[in-house]
């Protein structure tokens, strides 16, 4: 009898707590730069480990096609400003996204469906970050690029919101851009999707 009660107790406590129940509310609330398809088919931990190992230590894997730089604690962007100095030159929304790692609402950004020829620069420091030739429509609700301008993008492992992702920032000023996802099959030399907030960008037409 005691065994039966214990078994029931275990069942009652384990059934509702599935991965689905834990992760779905987080995903719906914040919609972090990740389409539903990729969220369910990729293993975030393995994916991020592959990115990190490929970018930092390997000299022969396909990940070396990426020209981004994996950030470390000693990798300090050349442009340094205090929060007050950033607030003086950025709008409140720009400050929220670039300096506090915010995310704009999906399908809301100026450059989500923007297709003109030119260069996307950092709204914080004017550094060239992406060209229109690397832009594609991923359907995720944010501007998507296969790759950044060589040396313009830094990467950092981001374990926020209960997920393992790779944050991308402007290498010149450290401004938050979005996240990069690998192996989704969209194309590009490195099979990567740079998912970038429109708010972080300014466009300069050619
Ligand atoms: Zn910048």
UniProtKB/TrEMBL annotation:
Keywords, in A-Z order: Metal-binding, Oxidoreductase, Zinc
Molecular function as annotated in GO: metal ion binding; peptide-methionine (R)-S-oxide reductase activity
InterPro entries, alphabetized: Met_Sox_Rdtase_MsrB, Met_Sox_Rdtase_MsrB_dom, Mss4-like_sf
Cofactor annotation comment: Binds 1 zinc ion per subunit.
Annotated Low complexity bias: 55-72
Cited NCBIfam families: peptide-methionine (R)-S-oxide reductase MsrB
Family the entry assigns: Belongs to the MsrB Met sulfoxide reductase family.
Protein name per the record: Peptide-methionine (R)-S-oxide reductase
Species assigned in the record: Choiromyces venosus 120613-1
